[in-house]
Amino acid sequence: MAKYVGAIDQGTTSSRFIVFDRQGEIVAIDQREHAQITPKPGWVEHDAMEIWRNTQAVVAGALAGKGLGASDLLSVGLTNQRETTLIWNRRTGAPLHNAIVWMDTRTDGFVREFAANGGQDFLREKTGLPLSTYFSGLKLRWLFDHVPGARKGAESGEVLFGTMDSWIAWNLAGGVEGGRHITDVTNASRTQLMNLATLDWDQDILNLFDIPRACLPEIRSSSEEMGLATGVLAGVPLAGMLGDQHAALLGQACLEPGQAKNTYGTGCFLLMNTGGKPYPSRCGLITTLGYKLGAAAPVYALEGSIAIAGALVQWLRDNLGLIGASSDIEPLARTVEDNGGVFLVPAFSGLYAPHWRADARGLVAGLTHFANKGHLARAALEATAYQTREALDAMTRDSGIEIKELRVDGGMVVNELLMQFQSDILDAPVVRPQVIETTALGAAYAAGLATGFWHSTGDIAANWRFDKSWRPSMARDQRETLFSQWNKAVARSFDWA
User: Fold this and answer.
1) Residue 131's Cα: distance from chain center in Å?
2) What pLDDT is recorded for position 1?
3) Rounded to an integer, what distance in angstroms lies between the CA atom of residue 221 and that of residue 299?
């Protein structure tokens, strides 16, 4: 008898497979990184075939590591890096180009072109999204304009488009031998091609971006049986699918309007559950699908998307050699009492919410002879906290809701210096759950709800368990002075590109 639910977590830097029990505890896990391909400044790509190979390897590795087999899993969920855009041949299964990653900025010309004819926000009413290099639709348009034969193949349905959920699901269910071309409402909502009201592809936008409907996947709910897996998971139903941040919202049990979570990964993503109504943002946020569980009404969310968070620590490690491992950032930052007046704005791909400035570029401000590598390390950590404050302030203005606490997850939440500073700069409690792999857990919940492993969202709420919290201890004047200096540095980053 099946005792567990599995989750494929296909992220920006790595792919993982995690097996969970009924209490939401981790039973088995395996992880493998993939290459970051940067052919030009501002361009970021992934090898989709490498990602699929890694996905198969981590599934096999996690199961073998605990002596498990497919028969031990009742179902499997899938969560993924969002907006990363791929086209492939339905007949051969071969990608026509590397996947264009969500943070890639090559479509900035399209953003300027379409914004000149209607303004940056003219698609917000339908999609909840501003025009930006971030979303998938313009990346797909770029591929059709630059890959020979791609648009013609898409018009006939021979060339398929998908974000990474569609790519993994298609291969998982057999690929050229019967793979299903599907996505879920959360991932579809990030393409800028789906209408938030109808939960279907919007023909007017397809016409505007010159995208053939025949290449698009079928949009499904986030929690339903979507077909049987093949390979090492042969016979296990794929029953959950969500973009990573939506999965984390579910995994953090943010089930009521006003509950919010922040995921600290490559980027940083703050989501607030707004219930059954999509709130149009007036303050630079994204209106998005939170999740849709089977036939139930969709749950919407406001999101503050931050492009660079953990990636800044990786940059200090890999590009500057300032640290040997990402975990070294906290002890280095603790060698100084404060940031020494140094502020680091990581606008490597422009700035996302709430600024939406594709012309911004990264900078270090406030340097003096006093500054050392400890101050730079501390400024890097603080940058994530300041950006979260910007997003949360906008969220409060849009929704009128003051959060009572911020639930946090992702790789950076083990950094206690960052978590305390986050609480200080927000002037609000920050709470870490016992299971911080909430992205995979949310995908598992979606799959388990669809197959009866969990019976209701009440089971999800009961599983959420507190690990540690941080409460603000910074004086108000100090908090506001630091945030004012951060805003000054951000303003200096504008209009570089």
Assistant:
1) 18
2) 61
3) 11
